[in-house]
Amino acid sequence: MHQSISKIYIFGANGFVGQSISRALEKDNRDVVKVNRRDFAKLIEAPAKFRREVKKEDKLVFASAIVPARSISLLTQNLSLVHQFLDPVYHTL
């Protein structure tokens, strides 16, 4: 089966895109970890703990965004979300 990937973490799993990704992966019998806003906030507060949980063979899917982003302000907020996601994880490597 899918031995090279242990878990697939879906950030934004409650959104339209995240739900579709999650359903497709679950249908394919993948081990999906759905990450919602509350989980994301915990990650920001304690990135080292999250980093210890994630294994090298795990995959991270970032499908979280404020939509529709019809202004520079909303685009900037979305970029900030990505930064908030990547920065703590990167610094714990």
What key phrases describe this protein's structure?
93 residues, alpha/beta, three-stranded parallel sheet, 4 helices, 3 strands, 52% helix, 13% strand
Helical amount among residues, as a percent range?
40-55%
Largest sheet: 3 strands, parallel
Please state the average pLDDT score.
85
Query: Distance N terminus to C terminus?
Result: 29 Å
Residues in β-strands, percent: 5-15%
Widest beta sheet: strand line-up: 2-1-3
Looking at the structure, what is the overall shape? Answer: globular
From N to C, what is the helix and strand string? EHEHHEH
The computed structural class is alpha/beta
Low-confidence stretches: none
Helix and strand topology:
Elements: E1 8-11, H1 16-27, E2 32-35, H2 37-45, H3 47-53, E3 59-62, H4 72-91
Can you describe this structure?
The protein has helices at residues 16-27, 37-45, 47-53, 72-91, and strands spanning 8-11, 32-35, 59-62. The chain has 93 residues and is of the alpha/beta class. It has one domain. It is globular and about 40 Å long. 13% of the residues are buried. The model has no long low-confidence stretch (mean pLDDT 85).
Short description:
The chain is of the alpha/beta class and 93 residues long. The protein has helices at 16-27, 37-45, 47-53, 72-91, and strands at 8-11, 32-35, 59-62. Strands 2-1-3 form a 3-stranded parallel β-sheet.
